[in-house]
Design goal:
alpha+beta; about 20% helix; IC97/Casc1_N
Length: about 600
């Protein structure tokens, strides 16, 4: 029997998920106004343009000032990124996307320009930074977002070792001897962020359930008021009035995201496919630079030759017709990897091709990776901008997942992959990384214990090399458990709705249930300890019909037979209510809409029902 017309009426008061947030732009502007720190609002073109123009006019900034100012620029870029990611599609107009991305690119360009100007300013007084032992300039500056290393060949001694190690950072390089007698400087600017790769395309459609114009969306209303007295008679007849779910025929948008760009296939094996791979640990700008004339003391006067040419790169290998067919020694490079990222496999070293605007692997050779020392060495045939590339889908498909409530509007979300166990805590509308366990050891302690938004948490984990968030192209590189959008997306909505009092977990039978059905384990859970195996029940949901299965997780074969003394329901919420205690129902009724939205955001970001 399918119960739909006479389902019990649960009265709740919020619409999920399509209208779940207020205007992000207005909220962002209000938060910015309340900060009162004098920084511009990046979403306002006049303010951000004024900010950039004023810094553009400022000259001779030293490197310490640029690093400090750069942190403010990075904060502005993060705010724009957050607006692009968090604003609902119906509020994000195409001209707004263009405006935000143009501002991001302009800020990135200005920041790198300022690093070049500060480098030139520093090299003009390289003599003052001469090392007492080698006589050459060595400067290392480390900040939370950037590591700046520069070496200048002041002595030009051919007998001096061409292998330079900057011991403070364990970064180093081995210069060819042909360069040892020239006015050359080498800069390793390690930005812990990536401002080199192309900006990601912002989709015009998101994964969601839609309804025809003439029909309402799946709507769940929340209020905390008790039922009116005149409805008591209806309650006595067995029609409990907690939930009112308005549900008409549901039309589901395709899972593919609509884009205006035609997908280009990559035929060159040396080109890195950024849909499949991703840079991790930032970008290393390794540049050979011409050393500007140094100041000289002559009869009490300080004299210096001034050249108005800006920061000049040192050409290597030299470009000339006579040496076109000549071969030049490679440059050896040793890099210390960040402690704030994890490489689960040996990374691929790639160089940036500015002409083709792509990462390439040719021109790099003799790579040696020391995982315990977090160090990588390689040789390159010229000076390049370098990134360490990792497979973006290492953690997919997941091995298991679990949602387990452990307090009021609070739960623990666990995703287990082949390499790590990731635990995320959700409380109210905030979430945090509880732990990442790799081979029995906890990692990324700098990220754990910090409350943030779901969007910010996903960005932070991706940057740290822990990508458990499928992209629009992930299904091409991962063997996914295909499910229809109606089943998958509606399940996430309903799981989030009752997650305050019920635990959910992965089931092996989800692989056998077909594309139109999702299967998962369910258990009422009002305590904080782990769920016992015997407390789990199996539920199957199609988006329009829910049922409790007769089989268990240990059964020998899959069967969609209905559990005895149970019946079909049109929603998962009503199905679970048949077996729920009064305490659990009351907890569901009192759940915060912000908590429900946070749970939904993480479920739709990880897509555990198709990527497990």
């Amino acid at each position: 029997m399918l119960r739909s017309q006479n389902e019990p009426k649960l009265k709740f008061g919020v619409v999920i998920p399509s209208s779940r947030r207020h205007s992000c732009s207005s909220s962002s502007r209000w938060e910015h106004y309340m900060q009162c720190d004098g920084s511009p609002d990046p979403s306002v073109p006049q303010e951000i343009n004024t900010f950039m123009s004023l810094w553009q006019e400022s000259k001779n900034d030293d490197i310490e000032f640029v690093i400090e100012k750069g942190n403010q620029v990075l904060n502005l870029i993060e705010k724009l990124d957050f607006l692009l990611l968090d604003t609902p599609p119906n509020e994000l107009m195409e001209d707004t996307i263009v405006q935000y991305q143009e501002s991001i690119l302009a800020l990135q360009c200005l920041l790198h320009q300022k690093y070049n100007e500060a480098t030139e300013h520093l090299l003009k007084k390289a003599n003052t930074y001469a090392d007492s032992d080698s006589g050459n300039m060595e400067v290392v500056i480390k900040d939370k977002n950037v590591t700046f290393c520069i070496w200048a060949n002041l002595k030009k001694n051919p007998r001096y070792s061409t292998k330079v190690t900057l011991f403070q950072m364990k970064n180093g390089f081995d210069l060819p001897k042909t360069v040892a007698t020239t006015d050359v400087a080498v800069r390793i600017l390690h930005t812990h962020y990536d401002h080199v790769s192309p900006l990601r395309h912002i989709p015009t459609l998101h994964l969601k359930v839609e309804t025809p114009e003439s029909k309402p969306e799946l709507t769940v209303f929340y209020d905390m008021k008790e039922e009116e007295e005149e409805k008591e008679g209806e309650q006595k007849c067995g029609e409990d009035s907690y939930l009112v779910i308005e549900k008409e025929f549901v039309h589901v948008a395709p899972l593919q995201v609509a884009t205006d760009e035609k997908e280009e296939e990559i035929f060159d094996e040396n080109v890195v496919d950024l849909h499949q791979f991703t840079p991790v640990g930032g970008v290393y700008h390794i540049d050979a630079l011409k050393l500007p004339p140094q100041a000289k003391q002559i009869k009490g006067w300080t004299m210096v030759e001034l050249l108005d040419v800006g920061l000049e790169t040192y050409p290597y290998p030299p470009a000339s017709e006579e040496t076109e067919d000549s071969t030049y020694p490679c440059i050896g490079v040793t890099l210390r990897l960040l402690d704030s990222v994890i490489f689960f496999e040996e990374p691929v070293v790639a160089r940036w091709d500015s002409a083709g605007e792509q990462w390439r692997t040719d021109g790099i050779s003799d790579m040696k990776y020391k995982m315990k020392e977090k160090q990588i060495s390689f040789e390159m045939d010229a000076f390049y901008t370098i990134a360490l590339i990792q497979d973006a889908h290492l953690h997919m498909p997941y091995q298991s997942w679990e949602l387990r409530p452990n307090g009021t509007d609070e739960l623990l979300f666990t995703v287990v992959t082949a390499f790590a166990e990731v635990q995320m805590q959700i409380k109210g509308n905030q979430c945090m990384l509880s732990s990442i366990t790799v081979e029995g050891c906890e990692q990324l302690s700098h990220l754990t214990g910090r409350w943030t938004s779901p969007i910010d948490l996903t960005v932070a984990l991706k940057r740290a090399g822990v990508n458990i968030f499928p992209s629009d192209y992930s299904h091409k590189y991962v063997c996914v458990n295909k499910k229809t959008p109606l089943a998958e997306v509606t399940a996430y909505e309903q799981l989030a709705l009752v997650a305050s009092a019920f635990a959910f977990s992965w089931s092996k039978w989800n692989l056998a249930s077909g594309q139109d059905q999702v299967v998962f384990k369910v258990s009422e859970h009002l305590k904080t300890e782990a769920v016992k195996d015997e407390d789990w029940s199996l539920y199957m949901f199609s988006g329009q019909r829910a049922q409790r299965l007769k089989i268990s997780e240990t059964s020998e074969a899959f069967s969609d037979d209905l559990e005895e003394n149970t019946e079909f329901h049109s929603t998962l919420v009503h199905m679970i209510k048949d077996f729920a205690s009064e305490e659990a129902i009351e907890k569901v009724k009192k759940a915060s809409c912000l908590f429900i939205d946070a749970v939904y955001q993480l479920l739709i970001a990880t897509r555990v029902l198709t990527y497990s």
